[in-house]
Amino acid sequence: MEPIKFSRNGPIGFELQARGRFRHSRTIEIQSMSTDYESHSESPAHDDAGAEQSASLVPMQEPMDIVDLDSHRQWALEAMAAAQNSYWRWNSPDRSFLCGTLDARAHHADEPMRLDWWTLLKAMPSTERRRLIILWRRINRGEQDRVDILIQPDATQTSIWWRIRGAITARDDQSAPETATGIWEVIDDPRDQRNHGSIRAHAFAASRDPMLVVDERWRILETNDAFTELGGLPSSTIIGRALQQYIQADVLHCDLATIARSDRIQHHEGVFHVEGESPVPVELTLSHFTLDETGQTHYIAALRDISARKRSERELEHLARIDTLTQLPNRATLQQMLNRRLPKLAPGHGLAILFIDLDGFKHINDSLGHQSGDTLLKIMVKRLRATLRSKDLVARWGGDEFVVVIDVGSDAEMADKIARRLLEALAHPMVISGHQISVTASIGVVHAPRNGRDTETLLKHADVAMYAAKDSGKNAIVAYHDQLKHHNLEQISMLSHLREAIVRESLDFVVQPKFDGNNRVIGAELLARWLSAEYGQVPPTTFVPLAEHNGMASALGNLAIERAAQYAARLATTGNPLPVAVNISALHVMDDALAGTLRSACQRHRITADQLELEVTESVFMENSRAPEARIEHLRSLGFRVAMDDFGAGYSSLGYLKRLPFDTIKIDRSFMQDLEADPRSRHLLAGIVGLCDRLGMETVAEGVETKEQWQLLQALGVKQYQGYFLGRPMAMEQLIERLKT
Asked: Can you tell me the distance from the alpha carbon of 359 to that of 363, in angstroms, rounded to the nearest whole number?
């Protein structure tokens, strides 16, 4: 007779949910199990690789061939009972399994206990549940049959573990498991967990991050070497002390158990105090673990030195408060300071706010370049600081605008005196890039609390006074008064009507044709006109800046794009598929929706991208970044032609030719003024035209007013022209009629 062999079998789990708690275990009499065991004993012996490691039962006193099979079965059951092993069995499609504990001393037979998998899974800790679910999926896919797993069956009894062994004993035609059986035992102190605990202990000791073990009262129980190095103290002097003696953090005053048991990983900031040295900012992370021997919960506090991060945060905060070019407080910092100081003004005590704008800065910036413009701003800041008192505040509002806050006390005349000294100091000549330059300023003055008690009102009134100083001829000082408010209200009223005209699309649009050397129309430029019932014919030089300065640049530009696409489609239907140019402001170029607006307009009117031409001015490049260039390159990649308008208004334009491959360069009308009388203007223009030709760019001369200018431009190599001599702005219907002749 073959000896009975017992194999080691691997783990099993089921992807089921639980409905409640469970209890274990139920004992049954050995004799009552014999019949049930016999009914399942005819399955073939295991013949896989694991069988080679099995152990055989060897008879002690009598030959194996005279011992009957029933005796072997009886001995096997007695061995299981002596080892305090319990059996388990599962049959598909049950969602529960039979289990029980064998007891050779029992003299009665109990029914096996049926344990519901849903109940078991719900009672387990989530980590154990996931392990069983993953394991069952592997078994279900046929990736393994054997079961040998250590699990924690009850989340409330952390010291109880089960060792489950067994195997899938039968699969159906689709290889799905049908039957599984095996043994299980209760283990109070599993060897596997001791090994894991040893690994964790080594990881704790070797960690490069400072770590401590504390109890529920934040008392230090253990530290690693990294912590003692950070504190510079031996562990013997640290053990038993409260963590609050070394770390200052709000979290150390909270309930440790509640914090550490949170499902989310939480990082807490604090300061680690080292005796004789500067405090070290640290990040504190808490977790918990349970001792298997006692079930007592301890907590691990992991520290990380975040000094570098804090330095970066301070630098970023500094950048957020300070203008990087001038190192002055920026707009946000100025507003915060005024918000703090204004409510604290004592009776009879006042502040004066000076809003300063540099006259002609844009022209210098365009002519000499941004680097020279930055140099000029730095010089102006030095002069402002040298003129003001140490207790006065100067901030950069933006661009070429500055705000000065003066504590005037009860002297109402002090602000005017300081403002005059500032005008004089700022107007002194300076040399930049080899050029002697003189810059003046326009200053608006308001007094708190006379002209307002809150930051927004005072800055708004100071801005109104500054623009009044510019309107008076610049290089002037204007103190705010109520009449200025009425002027500002008129602008507000005009702005309201302009906004309504844009929304209702009641603006008019005309076109000015472009011509070639044979006086043929080769395109047209769209121009906006506004005839208002309240203000009459408002020139574009008034309403276009008004729209751009008040957040309507994109709305006005989108309306112009729509009308340009409509006109281009009308020209195409008459047999003249000529491009229509539309002006795009610097603000509109930076609008993320611009490309989509252009594509939609082309699709709506069934025109191609090259039937629209986009004209931009040098102002689009005033920001010291590559963002505008990237936007324009993207528009060109979509098929839209891009022209630089008013080229030559600043010498820095030559730099743009190298940086950006425009399709067309429109030469500013200022070149036309002295073209006939000034040979230098002709030489300069001829050089620009030649350069553009070599770069593959077309040139258009704007402002051609006379026949002599036109003939001279032709001689200089200009191929396209625009101006009153050839064609004034006209309605689209007039252009179509002209094209018929």
From this structure: 9
Q: Where are the domains of the chain?
A: 74-188, 196-310, 321-480, 494-739
Residue 571 near residue 578 (C-beta atoms within 8 A): yes
pLDDT digits (tens, 9 = 90+) for 515-555: 998 999 999 999 999 999 888 898 898 899 888 877 899 99
Backbone angles phi, psi at 38, to 5 degrees: -60, -35
Determine the length of the chain. 741
Could you tell me which residues are beta bridge partners of residue 82? Answer: none
Report whether pLDDT(44) > 50: no
Q: Does residue 252 carry a pLDDT above 90?
A: no
> pTM for this one?
0.43
Q: How far apart are CA 278 and CA 283, in angstroms?
A: 16
* Separation between Cα atoms, residue 713 and residue 682, nearest integer Å: 9
Q: Where are the beta strands (DSSP E) in 92-176?
A: 96-103, 113-116, 146-151, 161-171
Tell me: domain 494-739, CATH 3.20.20.450, correct?
yes
Other CB atoms within 10 Å distance of the CB of residue 23: 8
Q: In angstroms, rounded to a whole number, what is the distance separating the alpha carbons of residues 136 and 513?
A: 79
CA distance 120 to 164: 14
- For tokens 């004799």, the residue is 31
Please report which residue ranges of 60-125 form alpha helices under DSSP H.
69-82, 117-123
Alpha-carbon distance of 723 to 708, in angstroms, equals: 13
CATH architecture observed for domain 321-480: 2-Layer Sandwich (3.30)
Strand partners, 546: none
Same CATH fold assignment for domains 74-188 and 494-739: no
pLDDT at 295: 55
List the one residue out of 449, 455, 445, 352 whose CA is nearest residue 405: 352
> How many CB atoms are located within 10 Å of the residue 603 CB?
10
CB 10 within 8 A of CB 167: yes
CA distances from 574 to 512, 736, 738, 739 (A): 18, 8, 12, 9
Q: 74-188, what's its fold?
A: Beta-Lactamase (3.30.450)
Span between the terminal Cα atoms of the chain, in Å? 119
Instruction: Compute the distance between CA of residue 483 and CA of residue 461 in angstroms, rounded to an integer.
Output: 11
Could you tell me the two tokens for 22?
A: 């469970």
Enumerate the H helices of 583-638 as residue ranges: 586-589, 594-605, 627-637
- DSSP state, 516? E
Q: What pLDDT score was predicted for residue 514?
A: 96
Among the four given CATH numbers 3.40.50.150, 2.60.120.260, 3.30.450.20, 3.30.70.20, the one describing domain 196-310: 3.30.450.20
Report residue 96: phi and psi, to 5°.
Answer: -150, 170
Determine what percent of the chain falls in helix, strand and coil, rounding each to the nearest 5.
Answer: 40, 25, 35
Mean pLDDT of 81-108: 72
Task: Read off the tokens for 464.
Answer: 């109104």
Is the Cβ–Cβ distance between 532 and 525 less than 8 Å? no
Residue type, 390: S
For 314-373, what is each residue's pLDDT tens digit? 777 777 788 888 999 998 889 999 999 999 888 888 899 999 999 888 778 777 888 888
Long-range contacts formed by 619-622: CB under 8 A, 24+ apart: 619/362, 619/586, 620/585, 620/586, 620/589, 621/656, 622/362, 622/365, 622/370, 622/586
Q: What are phi and psi of 53, to 5 degrees?
A: -95, 5
